[in-house]
Amino acid sequence: MALIRLYCSEDRFQIWQVKELLESRGIPCFVKNEFAIGAMGDLAPFDCAPEVWLTDDEWQPRAKRLLDDWLSEQRQCTQEWRCAHCQEDNGGGFEICWQCGEERPAETE
Ligand SMILES: [Zn+2]
Fold first, then answer.
1. Centre of ligand 1 from the C-alpha of residue 88, in Å
2. How far apart, in whole angstroms, are the C-alpha atoms of residue 47 and residue 26?
3. RanBP2-type domain location, by residue (predicted)?
4. Statement: residue 54 has pLDDT above 60
5. Which architecture, in CATH terms, is 4-78?
6. Domain edges within the chain
7. How far apart are CA 82 and CA 105, in angstroms?
C-alpha cells in the first residue's frame, strides 16, 4: 500500500472533478498542491500544478480506467469540429452545425 499520483492538471476545476469522480466510486483520494498556483516562486510550474493522489496504489488500475473514460468524454465535449457542409467551426457542445444545421460527423478515432 502506497501513495500514488494519479493525475495532474493546471486546471483546478478539472482536478476537483476528478476527485469527485473517484470519490463517487468509493476510491480514496486527495488533492495536493491545491493552493500552489500563484505562489510558484522558483519552482517549475509543473511541480506546482494541483495533483490528484490515491491513498492506496491498489486502486490505481480502476482509477486509471475511470479517469481515461472521463477524459475522453471531456475531450468530446470540448473538441471543436468542422462542418463538412459549410466548413464552419463548431464548439464541442453542438450536435449540429450552428450555421447550416448539418449534423456533426461521427467520431473518426
Ligand atoms: Zn455547416
1. 5
2. 27
3. 81-100
4. yes
5. 2-Layer Sandwich (3.30)
6. 4-78, 80-109
7. 9
